[in-house]
From TrEMBL:
This is succinate dehydrogenase. It comes from the Bacteria. The keyword Cell membrane applies. GO terms for molecular function: electron transfer activity; flavin adenine dinucleotide binding; succinate dehydrogenase (quinone) activity.
């Protein structure tokens, strides 16, 4: 497939989704019972999709590598979920949410998909309230809202600092209801290792039972990937250690295009790295930027004394503090988008104003909010986040500023999908963070939860029916078909190859080396020389990994190191594609910052003449260069302008 057909409906932007729903095919209740759907992943996107499809009457098999669906990484989301309800009467609207998302993504996302996301967002809140999600409320009982980066209105609904957990519990309860009803069968501790394609259509998966090592076959009329992003390619990230890109990568190797892999998000409010043996990073919610002020010392000598431990933050007077986000971006201040805030923090630290011993931190200070609102109010808003920070750092953030620094957080790139959320492989869908569709080159805070639930509850259940309406005469998928046998042999052969290397170094040794390469050359800033070097070094690391990795334990049993080795093998290949994509995109946009393309005041400089596209990479075979196709992005409803948050 060389032609990119995004299947965007005709008609005015605000009418595309309603017209599309009216035109697409539906499946009768009796026929739904004949159809099987596999959903891989049980985070917000996967759990909501599986529950919705089960409620509709399809036979659903849901898979997760965790021991329970409620352990999906969505549970870690803290700050909130966006929706265009305009409860604050501050002039929010569907169009404003659409425009903020397009602008926040630096004009590198599809208009039609983003507008649909904004359209369905109010329904998400109603759905979650009906499920009992305990959103924060105002004194009078109305749902409360707060602001997030990149917007000038308050549209973010939240449950203190544990919004993801509460939303996932809501989706989990809906999923459990369908499991009890028999419409959904759950396969916990099962990891998908291949997609089975028969006559050009996705017809099932091959998965490994992580409790005993058994490789199994599962057939279905359609397969849905809801497996999150690939941020752990950097080793250190805010993602859970088990998060990986393997499911999407195996789909890519079966013909699904991979889109915009170079777009990864650097989150500005992470607890800084504190040791060489650290295995992951901890995120402090972006919601803290509502009331916390970001600053570094104005004087380098004060920064140097801080790094040496000679003074504390509270010893520096207000007039000697540089509130650099407020200074540079007076309109948005501390609530500029994540990519802007992250680069600004790095610039201050690189200039010698970093405040921790390594010089890789800035302050996030609540002194002023406590003086203005009182400690009780701040504790009600952020108490669990403050408690988490103190447990990790042994610093009381009510009395001392937090220290934060940017870190890898979210993958805007992912599996290419059309308007129906179908990949370039018919019958294979991708939803939530696993696809590329809604966030462009930078995701606005509180939009990940919105997309996951929008896809699972309100978009996929409609669009997948259009495809399955043509499959109702297809019998149950025969897992004894040659394609299943071939896929199982590929999976087993790869596992055996990894296990039998018997090298000298553990998996984490190679993962850390990959992380250093990625952060150094494909991290917060990139240039042509560095990206070419990254491609060379990743190729060398790949050879070393496949010749010298050591995997202890038994192959056909519980073996976390074997799991990690398979995921790292995919991360190495994903890292290579990320570097190629970044090298090919000779402009700066959102989270992709090319040093060759910068404005006079140091901001990302787009080049719409060459960069107004979504890349769609096609697999050509092992150790062969992939081919990039382009989906041209057409903007009919917003004007392409250089982003400014000043």
């Amino acid at each position: 497939m060389s032609n990119i057909d995004s299947k965007i409906p005709e008609g005015p932007l605000a009418e595309k989704w309603s017209r599309h729903k009216a035109a697409i095919r539906v499946v009768s209740p009796a026929n739904k019972r004949k159809l099987d759907i596999i959903v891989v992943g049980t985070g917000l996107a996967g759990a909501s999709a599986a529950a919705s499809l089960g409620e509709l009457g399809y036979n659903v098999k849901a898979f997760c590598y965790q021991d329970s669906p409620r352990r999906a990484h969505s549970i870690a989301a803290q700050g909130g979920i966006n929706a265009a309800k305009n409860y604050q009467n501050d002039n929010d609207s569907v169009y404003r949410l659409f425009y903020d998302t397009i602008k926040g993504g630096d004009y590198r996302s599809r208009e039609a998909n983003v507008h649909r996301l904004a359209e369905v967002s109010p329904n998400i809140i109603d759905q979650c309230v009906a499920q009992g999600v305990p959103f924060a409320r105002e004194y009078g009982g109305n749902l409360a809202n707060r602001s997030f980066g990149g917007v000038l209105v308050s549209r973010t609904f939240y449950a203190r600092g544990q919004t993801g957990q509460q939303l996932l519990l809501g989706a989990y309860s809906a999923l459990n209801r369908q499991i009890d009803a028999g419409s959904v069968e759950i396969f916990a501790r099962h990891e998908m290792l291949d997609v089975v394609v028969i006559d050009g259509k996705a017809r099932g998966i091959v998965a490994r039972d992580l409790t005993n090592g058994e490789v199994k076959r599962f057939g279905a009329h359609a397969v849905v990937l809801a497996t999150g992003g690939y941020g752990n390619v950097f080793f250190l990230s805010t993602n859970a250690m088990g998060c990986n890109g393997s499911a999407a990568w195996q789909a890519y190797k079966r013909g699904a295009y991979f889109s915009n892999p170079c777009y990864v998000q650097i989150h500005p409010t992470c607890i800084p790295v504190h040791g060489s043996q650290q295995s992951k990073l901890t995120l402090m919610s972006e919601s803290l930027r509502n009331d916390g002020r970001v600053w570094v010392p104005k004087k380098k000598e004060d920064a140097e004394r801080l790094r040496k431990g000679e003074i504390s933050a509270n010893d520096i007077k207000d007039e000697d503090r540089d509130f650099y986000l407020e200074r540079r971006y007076p309109s948005y201040g501390n609530l500029v988008p994540r990519d802007v805030a992250s680069r600004a923090a790095k610039e201050r630290c690189d200039a010698g104003f970093g405040v921790n011993a390594e010089g890789k931190a800035v302050f996030l200070d609540f002194k002023y909010a406590i003086e203005r609102l009182g400690r009780d109010t701040i504790e009600k808003r952020y108490g669990n986040l403050f408690q988490m920070y103190e447990k990790i750092t042994d610093v009381n953030p009510y009395e001392n500023p937090m220290q934060i620094y940017p870190a890898i957080h979210y993958a805007m790139g992912g599996t290419w999908v059309d308007y129906n959320l179908m990949t370039s492989v018919p019958g294979l869908y991708s939803i939530g963070e696993a696809n590329f569709s809604d966030h462009g080159a930078n995701r606005l805070g509180a939009s990940a939860l919105m997309q996951g639930l929008a896809d699972g509850y309100f978009i996929l259940p409609y669009t997948i029916g259009d495809y399955l309406a043509g499959e109702i005469m297809v019998p149950k998928i025969d897992t004894n078909a040659p394609e299943f046998e071939e896929a199982e042999k590929n999976v087993t052969g790869r596992l055996e190859k990894l296990y039998n290397i018997k090298g000298d170094q553990p998996v984490d040794y190679f993962h850390k080396k990959l992380g250093h390469i990625m952060w150094e050359y494909v991290g917060m800033s990139r240039n042509e020389e560095g990206l070419k070097k990254a491609i060379e070094e990743i190729a060398e690391l790949k050879k070393e990994f496949w010749s010298n990795v050591r995997i202890p334990g038994e192959m056909n049993n519980i073996n976390p190191e074997l799991e990690k080795a398979g995921r790292l093998a995919d991360f190495i290949d994903i890292g290579d594609l990320m570097a190629r994509d970044a090298l090919n995109r000779n402009e700066s946009c959102g989270g992709h910052f090319r040093e060759e393309s910068v404005t006079e005041d140091g901001e990302a400089k787009r080049n719409d003449e060459i960069g107004c596209y979504a890349s769609a990479w096609e697999f050509q075979g092992e150790d062969k260069e992939p081919v990039m196709h382009r989906e041209e992005l057409v903007f009919e409803n917003v004007k392409l302008t250089q982003r400014s948050y000043k």
